[in-house]
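writing this on my phone so excuse typos. first protein, seq and then structure
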Amino acid sequence: MLRNLILASFIAGAAVSNAAEWTSLFDGKTLAGWTSGTGGKPSDEWKVEDGALHRTGKKPGDLISAKQYKDFEFEFEWKISAKGNSGVKYRVQKSPGGWLGPEYQVLDDKGHPNGKVADTTASSLYEIAPAATDKELKPVGEWNVSKIVAKGTVLEHWLNGKLTMKIDTTSEEWKKLKKDSKFAKMENYGDPVAGHLLLQDHNDEVWFRNLRIREL
């Protein structure tokens, strides 16, 4: 009995020690670890204010993570301006049309036209899979807590502690949704590959903070 308890304790301890640790992707003070869309220094129009990243100015461009990630759990907080639109892309690859990858939609559902289309509302997998209709979205100006989980072919979006979207990119559901989307002709869209994270510049004010990631 004692031997079994010792063995169980050893296994549990090993599991804890092997678990990936969370890594902060924003120090609250600088844009270290992020680049512009061309790989250079980010625009000064991405401001660091009160421990948050603030997209300001006329055209600051996207923020791209310096490191690539394949299987991960990524947590972040965001708030959007009135009628605002933005997004967080992941497993992003450079393509002839720009940076391409699945997108967690960041949106003012009540004020922006995309809020009237199911698969372009906040927390949706943009233009592919809609977020749950019973999601809990904070009003404009308040912080939302979001999470993206990408493991193999399964993608999950979370919003304020609730799962809002889950899909397997090998499923018949995915094939149908992709076929009916603007990504239909992009053969490798959604594949489980290592790619960058991207904080989107969509011409509207948006704020991000408490960005952290754990590789799976």
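second protein below, same order as before
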Amino acid sequence: MPSQDHTTGYEPLNTLKPVASDIWLIDGPALRFRGIPYPTRGTIIRLQTGDLWVHSPTQLTDKLRDEIATLGPVRYLIAPIWGHYSHINGWQTAFSGAKSFAAPGVAQRAAKKGLAIDFDQDLTSQAPAAWSDEIDQMIVDGSRAHREVVFFHRASETLILTDLIQNFESAKLPAWVRPLVWIAGIDDSDGKMPFDRRLTFRKAPLADAVERMIAWGPQRIILAHGRWYQRDGVGELRRAFRRILRDREWVAAMNRIEKDRARNSD
């Protein structure tokens, strides 16, 4: 399990930060993964029932728990990809009435790291009835190694991603980390999917997923790592995945040309 650091540049940490009506984010301490400090971020949505839905739970402090109690009861804990389970046990203990949901492979990954977590249900591309009227979800297909579940809160027009886009602000990183972030292509000047992760994906399924996210029409995108996008969510998706979309557009254009040639030859 990654070790924890306590500064990120997104202070104050471990406190609720409003995003829009009935949605908040929590900036948590950095976790060191392969020596690099990754800022963490969770998201809380208050459903129409008053129940709270928590995406990628961060470190739970007494103060944060007291703040959350003013919003409503925590009912759903979401581990959206294999690297985001570190604090689930603490939240399960604090909110015993909550059900825990995990993306494919999360429980197995946690077990390999020596952390036993009891999840109530696996996440799929079909949202459970408890939130299907308010939150869309989808497993991003195309990679066996990275099975992220993404979410779209309709009322606030907010897309919630975990590792699909990373967007590190260089000024908030130690100097020795900055070249690594630039090489990986995940600096805030052009945040996107890390290059090594992109190589694990097949283009067509990933492009399908991106096009569906664009069709949701997000106005903002909350990211787990780095600066999140407060506006022009669709534009940021098109920018971050422009190479994938450009390949698809090129193939579509070639197919149209071939069809025109076939018609003209008849």
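The longest helix spans residues 242-265. thats all i got for now
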